[in-house]
Amino acid sequence: MIKTMAEYAANGETPEVLFWVGCAGSFDQRAQKITRAFATILEKVGVQFAILGKEETCTGDPARRAGNEFIFQMMAQNNIQVLNMYGVKKIVTACPHCFNTLKNEYPALGGNYEVIHHTTFLQSLIDQGKITMQEGGTFKGKKITYHDSCYLGRANNIYEAPRKVLELLDAELVEMKRCRSNGLCCGAGGAQMFKEEEKGTTRINIERGHEAVATGASVIASNCPFCMTMLTDGVKETGREDEVKVLDIAEMIAANMK
Amino acid sequence: MRIVQELLFIIAFGMAVFLFSTKVRQIRRNILLGRDKDLNDHPDLRWKNLLLLAFGQKKMFRNPLVAVLHFFVYAGFLIINLEILEIILDGILGTHRLFVPVLGSLYPVLISLFEVLAVLVLSGCAIFLVRRNILKLKRFLSKDLNGWPRSDANYILITEIVLMLLFLTMNAADQEMQSRGSEHYIATGHFWISGMFTSLFHGMSDSSVMAVERACWWLHILGILAFLNYLPYSKHLHIVLAFPNAYYASLEPAGEMENMPAVQHEVQLMLQPELAASAPASDTMPKFGAKDVFDLTWKNLLDAYSCTECGRCSAACPANITGKLLSPRKIMMDTRDRLEEVGRNINANKTFTDDGKTLLRDYISEEELRACTTCNACVQECPVSISPLDIILQLRRHLVMEESSAPAEWTGMFSNIENNMAPWKFSMDDRDKWTENM
């Protein structure tokens, strides 16, 4: 049973960490699987965590990037009020957009927390020896490619932690030509997720889907629910969706840990 | 005769310096038309950026081969300019190779090193000309560069090649005259490169060789003075502005968008009306976002003048790669073009007189702005610390907050966030529904 901050507070307790689920992780059916996978890992490992539940709202990221600062400020100030009321110190989230906003943009508005992306969190659990994998896991020896999300990579310079986590799977990591700081966007950022693309020669996720499939990998590992949607559609466009799966790193770990 | 040459030189030199400094003052004035932003924090980190990004050209080395060629051209051009000091002093004082007695046996070594650099600059520029005009590189074929910008790039490369050739020919003629024991041509010792080419002059009379030497000397220095005055009108201005632009580069995480304290304050009053009583009433309506160059920060405008139109930003831009109208390079070129237009307006009218134009729409269309995914690839790629993204986002803020201009889907997304606390139309009560089948 996953407890909320309110439930902890009612017992006069504070959890170790707040799991910020985000809108995609809460509502999008595909992303919900990532949320459950990550929560399963936390429970198995015995991390004492809470969610905000119905008290969580959008961080304001898509509104701000579309240009609507008013809506961003409304969301941000509300969230900060709630977070500060519960005395939240440490936040983990499986969404790089929430991660970036909470970490880099809330401090200017009085919200100061230690914010960790779930891939970094998983890496530290692995470093502490808290995650052990089953013998001969499902990804053993398979080709995996990793898609750097813009908001984890270029925006926050996190390139190594997700790759370190993937090493645990005993798979063969094949990089796309455009990786790390050269990584190509999936096309969702800057509120593009919520509108049609402008006229062009192709869609960004198709371009990226082709690039990922061309590596010959059977799994595209992602770290962002929006990249997940975009890449899944992109792979479909190549007609290879039966052979190539898009999975979040948390799902890959959850499926194979003891 | 000598006094006439000295006089001519002083007039040419004075004119060049005067014209250049006038233009520099105008550019400085134009940049300061931007809104204020304090970028003087953390001088240690800023100096580090200046050394690594500008002097060390760190970002250029993302493509090592081009970086090495560019480094030759840059280092060569910069270091050879030390030689200009002697040339200018010779010009003013009517002397010839003033530094020979001062430097003694070091002199030919220094000049020889300059000559080696000159050859490197020459070869680098020649290869760059081929890259630009013969190899079909997408970022150089782009329609962003149609017209003047494409010629500008070629003029720069050709000028540098010509200047280097003049420098080497001048030295070769000088070496030949030295070997003939001409009194005026003080013995310097052997120059490594030009010394190999003295045979070119063997059949020529003393006066012809001297004429060649003098012609090269004059063309070389006049060429440099002309080039100096060409810079402010050219993309080549980056050789100067890359340095301050690296110093003032953003030190914030790339993903952070600039806060808007005016909006923050207003929303605060809305959420906590009890604060309103004590809040000072603001008498001016703040402007939201940017519509024209005046609304951008001075750093955005410095960015525009620093851009050398290399197109690494657009080559990495996901929107541009997939054929959208957006090109981050064009955003920078448009900003500079508009700012130059505003500058000419001020020159003509003393203060800016409304010309009915703005950066938004007259230069940059909504369609371009809408296509940005804020992925930061353009910012990451720029070798001279420019952020096209910062300009795009400020223009977007204007569109949405001042004009309520947004695609219908975005308007829906805004109202979903406002009413349902999520960008999609889901009930807030369902936010924790995923926990049910854990």
From TrEMBL, chain A:
Entry keywords, A to Z? 4Fe-4S, Iron, Iron-sulfur, Metal-binding, Oxidoreductase
Q: Which residues cross the membrane?
A: none
Q: Which domain of life is it from?
A: Bacteria
Q: What is this protein called?
A: (Fe-S)-binding protein
Q: Which Pfam families match?
A: CCG
Q: Which GO terms describe its molecular function?
A: 4 iron, 4 sulfur cluster binding; metal ion binding; oxidoreductase activity
Quote the cellular component terms of the Gene Ontology held in the record. plasma membrane
Among InterPro entries, the record links this protein to: Cys_rich_dom (IPR004017), HdrC_iron-sulfur_subunit (IPR051460)
From TrEMBL, chain B:
**Any GO molecular function:** oxidoreductase activity
Under SUPFAM superfamilies, the record lists: alpha-helical ferredoxin (SSF46548), Respiratory nitrate reductase 1 gamma chain (SSF103501)
Q: Which UniProt keywords apply?
A: 4Fe-4S, Iron, Iron-sulfur, Metal-binding, Oxidoreductase
- Lineage top rank: taxon: Bacteria
| Leader peptide range in chain numbering | none
Task: Give a yes or no for keyword 4Fe-4S in this entry.
Answer: yes
Q: Does the keyword Metal-binding apply?
A: yes
A single Gene Ontology CC term: plasma membrane
Q: This chain belongs to which protein, by name?
A: (Fe-S)-binding protein
Organism whose genome encodes this protein: Chitinophaga solisilvae
